Amino acid sequence: MIRPATALARTALLALACASAASLAQAAPDNSDLVAKLLVDKGVLDAKVFDSPATAVDSAASLGQQVRNASSSLVVSAMNFLGVPYKRGGNTADNGFDCSGFTRHIYENSLGLLLPRKVDEQAKASGLAPVKRDQLQPGDLVFFNTLKRTFSHVGIYVGEGKFIHAPKPGGEVRVENMGVRYWAKRFTGARRVAQAPAVAPAAPLATPAADTPAPLSPGHNDAP
């Protein structure tokens, strides 16, 4: 059962994703500050947005604009699971998610694309193409080396340098900043759906060579 505070934050995030940047810019200062506070509490925005009301509105509007762009329904769907507990091997909101169980659930239910279960297999999945870090778009899968394996953790990029993921035992689905030292030095690549799932069948892509590791053993993430 999702706690009231989590439900409130989730509602604010969904409202942000669906609202236009113009509407946010015209919101009353008190309302925009409340939205910004909820986003700060969930790690979507930095606390420095409170340096000025205008900064808070602009930051929230910028993220809202990105979420509403490419793969918006996928990102909004992912945001809906903020606060769901981590569970190793978990595949559902009722029982909890691990990192690859979370991304697999979101992609299947939002795009109709069934990803492999393991992190390293998701990185090599047919129909996904490599993406450079400076070309990330909301909805892209982002991969990290957290267990001394090139692809041992995965999340979903949401915009503004943030990603949403199921982090570790004892944690819950949350949004984090890819720019912080831990994640920045462990980022190992990103993937994007090469062709809209509505156009079927998508032609399988050749396995990326640049950042594909040797065969890996099964495993899930233990993030900080």
Summarize the structure.
With 224 residues, the protein is α+β, with helices and mostly antiparallel strands. The protein is built from eight helices and eight strands, in the order αααααββααβββββαβ. The strands form two sheets. The protein has a six-stranded antiparallel β-sheet with strand order 3-8-4-5-6-7. It has a two-stranded antiparallel sheet with strand order 1-2.
Question: What are the salient characteristics of this protein?
Answer:
224 residues; alpha+beta; endopeptidase fold (from Nostoc punctiforme); 2 domains; six-stranded antiparallel beta sheet; two-stranded antiparallel ribbon; 8 helices; 8 strands; disordered N terminus
Summarize the SSE layout with pairings:
Elements: H1 4-18, H2 21-25, H3 29-41, H4 53-68, H5 72-79, E1 91-92, E2 96-97, H6 99-111, H7 119-123, E3 128-131, E4 141-144, E5 153-159, E6 162-165, E7 174-177, H8 181-184, E8 187-193
Antiparallel strand pairs: 1-2, 3-8, 4-5, 4-8, 5-6, 6-7
Helix pairs in contact: 1-3, 3-4, 5-6
Kindly describe this structure.
Mean pLDDT is 74; it is low at 1-5, 15-32, 66-70 and 196-219. The chain has helices at residues 4-18, 21-25, 29-41, 53-68, 72-79, 99-111, 119-123, 181-184, and strands at residues 91-92, 96-97, 128-131, 141-144, 153-159, 162-165, 174-177, 187-193. The strands form two sheets. Strands 3-8-4-5-6-7 form a six-stranded antiparallel sheet. The protein has a two-stranded antiparallel sheet with strand order 1-2. By secondary structure, the chain is an alpha+beta fold. 40% of the residues are buried. Strand 6 (162-165) and strand 7 form a beta hairpin. It is globular.
